[in-house]
Amino acid sequence: MDGPESGVVPAVESTADDITAMRIRGAAAIADAAATALATQAERSTADSPAAFEQELRAAAATLYETRPTAVSLPNALRYVLRGMDGDTVAALRSSTITRAERFTRDLAQAQDRLGEIGSHRLQDGDTVLTHCHSTDALACVEAALEAGKELEAIVKETRPRKQGHITARQLREWDVPVTLIADNAARRYLDRTDHVLVGADSIAADGSVINKIGTSGLAVNARERGVPVMVAAQTIKLHPDTMTGHTVEIEMRSERELLSDEERAAIIGDATDGDADAKTKPTGDVDQAPVTDSGLTVENPAFDVTPPRYVDAIVTERGQFPPESIVTLMRELFGEPTDDPWES
Ligand SMILES: O=C(COP(=O)(O)O)[C@H](O)[C@H](O)COP(=O)(O)O
Can you tell me which residues form the catalytic site (predicted)? Predict the structure, then answer.
């Protein structure tokens, strides 16, 4: 149930919209926004019984959960906050939920600082890092290295189609790091000048596979061939508990319009009079699904890919750095055996 009858407050709907439209993006920022939205739901709820309050919070969590499928930090954040919802009255439930959400956002920021410090030890004075997409966890390592007085340079992949590399470049320039911005296709050539490939993650699977922005896996394979170490900066909130029981991580497919305008589509299929993609798209009920076309042209736009553990040298978390193959030990320690999601009851 969605909409006013579910009791979900407009602020939660608006956060969900922002995540779907990628005005809020990146796994850590999504988790932070989701936890904050649950606190807002708790604060503004008009539920008149504990059961109604809990039901509203579950509905709000479900609304947020439905936004984007790949970053596990989102369900991990929702689970964490809902499991802290405790009390026999609406007032007690409200205050425990808000306290828990606030603790989540505080811990998230602290974990990133700690991770940055740990990751910074891998970076030497004078090193050049090559980045892909925009990861606040990866940048935390750079920031901590700079604070320790090291000088770094960066080669920044543009990261098509949405060019998140520009956000990375802007942040690095604010820190006065010399930046060379390159097209994604140029990455292999620039590995000769690179000391570390440094990326973030949306999810880490139990076998140590890294799920991150599309293009990460190709970059990692090329880096291995060139002998350049690949460092993944990922707080433990990125560890995907369901993968311990064999579940795979869903890769988000985004709209074809991120790759192709209506005019470009019309030019390719040679029908300039019929440039409206919708007219050529069998409805899938979801704009983010790759559309099925009747023009013989299918556009697919996966947002993430899977890098096998053998191409990753280290996963840096706030709990230390790990070879990818041993990350499952940390997952067991942190999550135990997975249980049902609270918003599905
Ligand atoms: O792949 C992306 C963002 O993809 P998108 O732009 O599609 O959300 C980032 O590398 C991870 O989310 C980690 O980011 P952070 O370290 O900030 O959590």
Answer: 133 (proton acceptor), 202 (proton donor)
Indicate which residues carry an active-site annotation.
Answer: 133, 202
CB contact set of 60 (below 8 Å; sequence gap of 6+): 8, 9, 12, 37, 38, 41
What is this structure's pTM? 0.92
169-192 residue pLDDT tens: 999 999 999 999 999 999 999 999
Q: Judge whether 26 is annotated as a binding position.
A: yes
Identify the DSSP state of 250.
P
Which of the four pLDDT bands, split at 50, 70 and 90, describes residue 321?
very high
Of the residues 212, 219, 237, 258, which should be mutated to test ligand 1's pocket, given the most ligand atoms within 8 Å of the CB? 212
What's the angle, vertex CA 77, arms to CA 6 and CA 2, rounded to 5? Answer: 15
Asked whether residue 233 carries a pLDDT value surpassing 50, the answer given is: yes
Q: Which residue CA neighbors atom 4 of ligand 1 most closely?
A: 26
158 C-beta neighbours (distance < 10 Å), count: 22
Delineate the domains of the chain, giving CATH numbers in brackets: 4-114 (1.20.120.420), 121-245+304-335 (3.40.50.10470), 258-293 (no CATH)
d(CA 151, CA 65): 40
- Cβ(40)–Cβ(11) below 8 Å: yes
**Ligand 1 centre from 129 Cα, in Å?**
17
Q: What are phi and psi of 145, to 5 degrees?
A: -65, -40
The CA 276 to ligand 1 mean position distance, Å, reads: 31
Q: What is the ipTM metric for this complex?
A: 0.99
pLDDT digits (tens, 9 = 90+) for 209-227: 999 999 999 999 999 999 9
197 sits in which H/E element = strand 196-199
- 280: pLDDT confidence band, cut at 50, 70 and 90? very low
- What angle (nearest 5°) sits at the alpha carbon of residue 307, between those of residues 302 and 309? 160
